Amino acid sequence: MIGAGQLTHYVAQMALALDYQVTICDPREEYADGWLVPGTELLRTMPDDTVTDLRPDSHTRSWR
Q: Are 25 and 53 in contact (CB under 8 A)?
């Protein structure tokens, strides 16, 4: 997910409950420093770089 805002906290918890591997990307310190959802990975890189580096494949779930 891109952005570590308040809504992402809830969506991340729901995704974990459904047994998804959850990665959050947000380079902003004011959001990243307050990220407190255990079991998720927080990346502090730029979103476009992160998506490129993760190399999504047919097993990657995309929510739009």
A: no
